[in-house]
Amino acid sequence: MRQVLGAAKRLFGRNKPEDVYERGLKAYERGQHKSAFDLWLAAARDGHVEAQYRIGRLYDLGEGVLRNAVDAVGWYVQAAEQGNRDAQVRLAEMYYYGSGGAKGAIPSDAVLEMLFPNGLKIEQNYEEALRWARAAAEQGAVVAQAMLGYMYASGFGITPDYQEAEIWYRRAAEQGSAPAQLGLGTLLAGGYGGAPDPETAHGWFQKAAEQGNAMAWYYLGSQYTAGLGVEKDSEKAMECYRKSAEAGTAAAQRALGMLYARGLGVPRSIEQAETWLRKAAVQGDAEAMILLGELHSRGDGVQPNLFEAAIWYRGAAELGNRRAQHIIAQMYLNGQGVPKDDLEAARWYERAAGQGDPQAQLRIGAFYAEGRGVDRDYGRALDWFRRAAEQGNPDAGYNIALLHNLGLGVPRSTVDAIDWYRRAAEQGSMLAQFRLGAIYAAGDGVPQDYTEGVKWSLMAAEQGHALAQVNLGRFCMQGLGMAPDYEQAERWFTAAVQQNEAGAMTALGELFGIWRPEKDAERAEYWLNRGADAGDARAKPLLAKLREQQQKTA
């Protein structure tokens, strides 16, 4: 009889999915996660949408079962396709950020493959994230609306659409979402999709800040610092930055450190500046690391410590900051705070160069040309020089001209060399201007043209190139490419002498003893003697010639 009743119960008295779900809910509330899982699994298999979401959640959190993002997504999808808003939100998040297994899990391990046949990891999929975020947002999920705004604003995986971003941010912001209020304020302050509106942005930042959003306090501080949408107020900026910094925002900690360093809104305190910058730096803020490096390099209010500075510069360099990479390379090159090491210098210059730093490109190109810290490779040198030249670096263009002139890494070509000298000279390279002036004066690969020689030599001389000053003085003295001008000749020779240029000393002797109509034998002999003492080979023969002339006229 009992068997008959049991069979009848199975046929006519089967528990409804809703009842099973409720029993699972009570078990969960008692902390009996495994019992909850078993009950919800039965209801979920019968199509109960909330049970499907709950099973996904258990897999997501690892409650009652081994944590597994893949199985979580499988159940979330079933619930989401039936319109469960919470499942749609979580799917959007998981696909947007990606989700892996538990720490230490190795998917290739045979045991794990047996336990998790469907895998452990959810790869990022922006298309799926957008699909589910929109589905939840259209059902009124505020979190999804804020997320949708962020996706359209950031453009990760999709084309940025600031108008669409503002629509969704505004919907969520008006319902009190602090992240959406922050996002909407950012759009308005930056003028994305329209004219900047810092005043309205300030209102939204304020709303988000009042809800405890630390980044909103940082943006408010930035507005008060710069006077954007509000009156500039260092004290209010300090107050906002402090609230954000104390909540752990690295950018605010950096800003607070800078205010202490400059004494804006607070009494100047290098100690406080160092403390707040260090807090930001240990969170991985590369700019804070650079500021700490500068603080310890110059010793502004603290004992200079190049070793400490190098630690912070290297930390920022390791994070990919190209400015820090350039600085630490320079420190290794000169042995400042670190052992002198051309190999390390070359490594960091090349990393900065790879990020587009034109000065680093110039430097690493020179390293390859010289074989310094790397194997000599004129081809690679030329490549780095070209990259720097394309960014307008005139010294790189000059170096390319030298390689063409000498046939290093490229076939020797005077035509190409002159072309590059001209490009570099037009961009302001003093060395290229000097070289071009000399080329035209000598007619080396071009028709001799003293007018062009004067033009380029003058540019280099005005930048302080001593040999260009000597050449220009000679053009003035001898009337080459211009009318003779002895006063200008003396001026340029004297400028070169101030740089201890021996040839300029000899040239002054020539000017006073040979070229000027009014000779001054005493001054001529003085400068020729100085030229000879300085090692100029032309000075002694000219001095002998001058003395011979003096004897003839005596």
Automatic annotation (TrEMBL):
A Pfam family reported for this protein in Swiss-Prot or TrEMBL: Sel1
InterPro entries in the record: Sel1-like, Sel1_AlgK, TPR-like_helical_dom_sf
SUPFAM superfamilies assigned to the protein according to its UniProt record, in alphabetical order: HCP-like
SMART domains linked: SEL1
Source organism superkingdom: Bacteria
Name of protein: Tetratricopeptide repeat protein
Organism: Azospirillum argentinense
